[in-house]
Amino acid sequence: MESSDSLRNKCAACYRQFNRMEHLVEHMRTSYHSVHEPACGVCGKHSRSFESMREHLIGPLPKAECERIFKDRGCDICLGIFGSRNALRNHRESCQLSRGNGLFPRMANLGISNDMRIENNRSKVVALACKMVGGGSDGSLDLCARVCLTDECENIIFQAYVKPLLPVTNYRYETTGIRPEFLRDAMPVRQVSRKIQDFLCNGEPIWKIRSKGGRARILVGHGLDHDLKCLDMEYPAIIIRDTADYPPLMKTSKLSNSLKYLTKAYLGYDIQNGIQDPYEDCVATMRLYMRMRSQNHEVEDYPLATDPQNRNNFAQWRQGELERMSPEEMLEISRSDYYCWCLDSRG
């Protein structure tokens, strides 16, 4: 049985216990616990990432009661807990996605088009993926040679082979499927970049783009820093949604997971086997984004720790007041240090 003192010094989010209340306050000051963190459907424990929660449920040292219930009626894809095995079976039909109907390679190889599909102009969220060939003396320098842009409904907006600025020394055919003749008359990389950037900005000057309310489109992808660098293109970070550095999708070590792993773990199917298609990557990142965006978190007026209204929540000058609060009261004023994608669905 836990003493009342130990319960008072127990974090209401991650359940970590502290000897002194001042230590719990310092923990809350730096942990940024919030309603947006993944939480166990059995005991309610918050985790920084879904990987941490997976370890809590079915890892090497899981919590026994949570493991028992999860193995009986928990979904190993979204990590949700359901009221019955029948409810779990019904849920799995929509949670476990498939790679598609076998049209990925055919659509990508036969549908190469250098024209933006204007009918997709209303799309507010688009996914971008590139495939790289090698440059430099040893072929290790990444050069963009193929690009794809899709909308929320997995329709192709734009795809093209891309002619790099530098000579290609390794076509990496085993994974790209790209041959020299495919790039001979391809669109130059700078022209591709301008075309994509104009579409993303949607008539809004790039320096005017803000996080909400503008015309610019949200850009989804995996490792977009690298893709945009290889395209020699800029786009504001406030409107980028990158599955490689979104905290709930990262490893417990805070390193990025591969897109191949994320797709298998959180969508339930395999990608990037053999020759890889950028369309397939676009579909996977968009599905991951939509799944994260659809999470039903509690609505807060000011959800970020960086919002001016929250900057003094755990200020040093409030130390005495904070130490008199209960762990639950401190959790109520704690806010996230990252932008949760569920906020995109709230306009």
From TrEMBL:
Please give the SMART domains that the UniProt record associates with this protein.
Answer: EXOIII (SM00479)
| Domain C2H2-type: residue ranges | 9-38
Q: Name the domain of life this protein comes from.
A: Eukaryota
**Keyword presence, RNA-binding:** no
Biological process per Gene Ontology, one example term:
rRNA processing
Q: Gene Ontology terms, cellular component aspect?
A: nucleus
Family membership noted in the UniProt record: Belongs to the REXO4 family.
Official protein name in the record:
RNA exonuclease 4
Q: Which species does this protein come from?
A: Rhododendron simsii
